[in-house]
Amino acid sequence: MSSFRLTTVEEFEAATDRLLETGAKVGADSWQMRVKNQTPHCKFGEEGICCRICSMGPCRITKKAPRGICGCDAHGIAGRNFLRFTAGGAATHSDHGREICHTLHTVAPDGNYKVKDAEKLIRIAKEWGVETEGRDIYELAHEMSELALMEYGKPFGVQRWLKRAPEHTQKLWHDAEIEPRAIDREVSTAMHMTHMGNSSKPEALVRQALRSGMSDGWGGSMCGTEFSDVMFGTPKPVDTEANLGVMKEDQVNIIVHGHDPSLSEMICEYADDPEMVALAKTMGANGINVAGVCCTSNEVAMRRGVPMAGNFLQQENVVLTGACEAIVVDVQCIFPALGPLSKCFHTKFITTSPIAQMPDSDFIRFNAETAGENAKKIVRTAVENFANRKQELVHIPQLKQKATVGYSVEAIVKTLDGVTNSQVDVLGTTKPLLECITSGVLRGAVAMVGCNNPRVRPDYAHIELMKKLIKNDIIVILSGCSAQAAARAGLMDKRAKDLCGAGLKRVCELADIPPVLHMGSCVDISRMMVLASELSKDSGLPISKLPVVGCAPEWMSEKAVSIGNYVVATGIDTFLGVDPQVSGSSEVTYWLTEGVRKWVEAAYTVEKDIEKLGDAMIARIEEKRAALGI
Amino acid sequence: MTLFETVFSGNDAVYGLTEGAVNAAIEQHGADKAVSFPNTAYCLPCYYAVTGVKVKTLGELKEALGVVKTLMTREMRLNDVFMSGVATALCAEFIEVLKYIDGAEPYTEPCYGHLADAVIRELGVPLVTGDIPGVAVILGSAPTKEEAVALVKSYQAQGILVTLVGGVIDQVAEAGMKTGANLRVIPLGKDVTSVIHVVSVALRAALIFGNVTPGDAANLMKYTFERVPAFVNAFAPLDDVIVACGAGAIALGFPVITNQEGVSTVPKSLILQPDVSKFNATSLEARDIKIKITNIDIPVAFASAFEGEIIRRGDMQVEFDGSRVDCAELVQSAEATEIEDHKITVIGPEADEMELGSKNSIAYVVKVAGKNMQSDFEPVIERKFHNYINCIEGVYHTGQRDMQRIRISKDAFHAGFRLKHIGEVLYASVKNEFDAVVDKCEVVIYTDPAECKRIRHEVAVPTFNKRDDRLKSLTDESVDVYYSCILCQAFSPSHVCVVTPERLGLCGAVSWLDAKATNELDPNGPCQVITKEKCIDERIGEYEDVNEAVRKFSQGALEEVSLYSIMEKPMTSCGCFECICGIEPFSNGVVITNREYAGMTPLGMTFPELASMTGGGVQTPGFMGHGKHFIGSKKFMKAEGGIERIVWMPKELKEFVAERLNQTAKELYGIDNFTDMVGDETIATDPEELVAFLTEKGHPALGLDPMM
């Protein structure tokens, strides 16, 4: 027990510094160096008031030049930029979801992909009014896949998943006209609205930004999460490890990186293949070790307990260890820098998706139909590359922590069942959690999500905020790179209960959970929406009244903005640690931080001082408690 | 008012009262007046346990009150609530101790008030052994005295120690119920503050048995939370003071169950149970207390004395025979929600609907659920069925899986024994023996032939196949840990078995899965985890970690063992091995003999003679005790070349192991029907004749290097 302590951000940084020394030796570039070169950033861009939507420009707004050539002011420009940013994120998540739906269409009893969670498929089918009685599960899967794909382009109606929300929320959406129609349409509409000569009214642009976000969280992302569960299994608590120390010096290290689990699931399968393991032995390795980076890592950690080597800003570090035989990527958040960097080492940088093609990479195209062969080829390439490792460059920082991950909504409910009393309670609800919150044992919950961003000391904001929240008896649910920061620090070790206030500590002990719960990848933030909806239905309170807030302290991608928009639109106040690049417009800022509250009962708060950000969240939670009289 | 505010308010009220009482006492007696409870070495035990400071005078009590005040912080956090609860309890102790000034005896029959240290020392052993499975604190008045008595009696019948505070004392007295420490029902006192006398017991237990340092409040609360199986039943109406006391109880880990409507509930901690008749079950579940079932409700006796009983055909009422009709016995793990504890269902005809002397189908499925249950334990539990059912007077059981055979005697039948009673026996035995992993258990007994057929072929057999596959996939390499087993150290104090997937314990009764389950069931028991991270020599299977473990568990008698060699550092033998193998120098091979074989071996020694030089926990290179199933293992004396060294076995043993041995020989060396090359007593018991036979058969051992 006494041996447990968190790994500090200083230790993370010392490990990184040591790796950068290796980098310097081989003449490698790094994000740290590129940040220096890019600083200071363009001020107009940072404030969102540079318009390059037509070729009359680019136009930028100053005191002397308050309007662009077409006459659009700072508010219109910032609003358009914000909407386009959102649309980029929504398109990205949703297209990932679409790939999953297509993969679902290939499932077969003897195929590369199978239905692993039939019960969940049947549950969703019933939700969608599809006949399930007496049907072959694969036939049902194919029908569901087609229905889901129709959600992307349906000519009429709104997203099917919206019905999962509490009625109150559904009504708000309807009244505010932000119910997403076809998923692709909300992206197209966003692009259309922001084309030269269309909307310049901030209110309209922000409204569509919410709607585009909704098409992601309550559309494409939800498809991605739910049907991934159907094919790869709904996550349940599993033990794993996190940080660079999970890489093994005596084994072939394959790093999976990106977002789509279709590839990484197959890589994991074939890394266990006796033929491949035998091949590794002949190459002088003691085995094949798969570890992950970014959200692909979250996916396979949640379902298989595959260790997590690092998050977004660690992606170069895994190569810098000199012990990475292959970094295999699918889509999103992949640094093009990995190409040149891999050339400084023996590492194979293997791209697999037509969506993410990069120079200096080996492109092994991955198809659902030929997934097995593709994966085997990739594993073989990595294994054969073991012989090329340059021993003098190998240095794996020996930092790692234990983590219990895998808290899907289903797993959380099941965990909560474990603390019920069968003499008085019903099972299968979130009521035990609500009881903890209502009684005050827990003050509330924070959903912490998002990326790393060099604008913030990497991982520091995530970890410090989590420490502060759990100390104040606030349970934290996590996804994405935020979750990996927690795991690497040790906050997902059940022993981290000793860092909590008495209330959360007791809850951790009784429910046998760590104080911060890993809910999955960034696409899986849709799980958080389902959880919030369940809490609302089980308590009879609107989501916005629950003492629950969202937080993205180190966000950086367009996806994060799309997520933020659907989280706010779902009624959850959201706190950002990085400016959403609209500060050049007081009106857009108003709409995001106050105006939208009229529509959805929640809004953004931006606070770059991490200490204050934490205090603001706690204060908001206590305000919500006071309003409820609890 | 929120729950937290209620606690704070109750705490403030009690503090005010205490302050007044202490001041009044000082005014009356002076600050130097001695205060103490009788017969305790821990002056003001609760305050001493929490702060480490002994209070002996009124003046010191006043100072202590100042310390208590510092606990009463008012942030809206559970820590503040817990500390206010503790502060309330300490105030109660102060109020109570004032009653004892000048050697007064404030409590009279039937109330006890303060309990002496000696009482705690007496309770210690039964609490540790589980003879007292829990401690109930009943507070207030039950809705009716009948309900009060029923509740107290229900705990009493389970062996739970009951303490009473407040109105319930009069209620049980009016009903004429006898109370007293000897009956495990202790009325403490009628004021709510007298509840401190049971808290005092719990805290002194932590100091006496838990070696908690007085003043180490964190470890004190950890001790009571983890080790004192107490809980509170508080009857409505609850006032602020009781709620504040309840916060103290919950801080110590004791859940509070109440019938007070409108209370703000907290899972596993503060539970609303409007139905007093369910207080017992609700409380036990909340505190995870499992009651050993000592009395199985069946019309015949149940004891190991009946294990060897045989029911002859003429004495038989009905029988069930898996070799003729569809039968099965199966343990299935399920979700807790899918199981109703102690539910026993018979689907199909009961024994009294079956013809006298008839042969019938039976399939019983025992569904179990538990937080720590793993599917690997299913067969471990299932293997005990034979033993359980055989212990029933007038019932006989042989076989397993879908090949069991059961007979019920006419006598048992006429005494009222029915199939549902098999369910009772299975339920009670599984719950008793596997309480570490089984929280809930339900039994379904099928006798309907169609259902039996379905259960056998669609449920049981696929499960058995899956388990067999799992067993096959378990190799020494595929697992991360091995287990030690020292079950037989009672006889052989320096012997340690190292149990691996491919090498079961030499008694033949402990497989790797058994050892794993034993370890989970009793983490401090005979089977301990041994890591296998530091390999010294892969050929003979020697590990630094294994050596370390063996050294530790043999108390230093053994330094090094190998897992796969009988020549180099062989594993020791106790005395309960199924087989012995020893080198046969003429053929470069080994001879194996088993306990059941009374005859001579080609080594010129019988089993007992060989056993006398092999047992006792000493290493005897060239000789080794082992289990029968080890013979077919790929790891059997792997270092010396493996099973192709086997040249002789008693015929019966040879037949028993033939299938697996032949399969292993085929896989390792490509030899078909290897056992045909192995001698037995019908072929030779003389080494020269044996060699002649081996030569004729072309036995591979002849071509191997000599072992010595």
UniProtKB/TrEMBL annotation, chain A:
Highest taxon, organism lineage: Bacteria
TM ranges: none
Keywords tagged on the record: 4Fe-4S, Iron, Iron-sulfur, Metal-binding, Nickel, Oxidoreductase
Gene Ontology MF, one: anaerobic carbon-monoxide dehydrogenase activity
Enzyme class: oxidoreductase
InterPro entries: CO_DH_a-bundle, CODH, HCP/CODH, Prismane-like_a/b-sand, Prismane-like_sf
EC number: 1.2.7.4
Cofactors demanded by this protein: [4Fe-4S] cluster
Gene3D superfamilies xrefs: 1.20.1270.30, 3.40.50.2030
Reaction(s) this enzyme catalyzes, per UniProt: CO + 2 oxidized [2Fe-2S]-[ferredoxin] + H2O = 2 reduced [2Fe-2S]-[ferredoxin] + CO2 + 2 H(+)
Pfam families per record: Prismane
PANTHER family: CARBON MONOXIDE DEHYDROGENASE, HYDROXYLAMINE REDUCTASE
Protein name per its UniProtKB record: Carbon monoxide dehydrogenase
Native source organism of the sequence: Blautia celeris
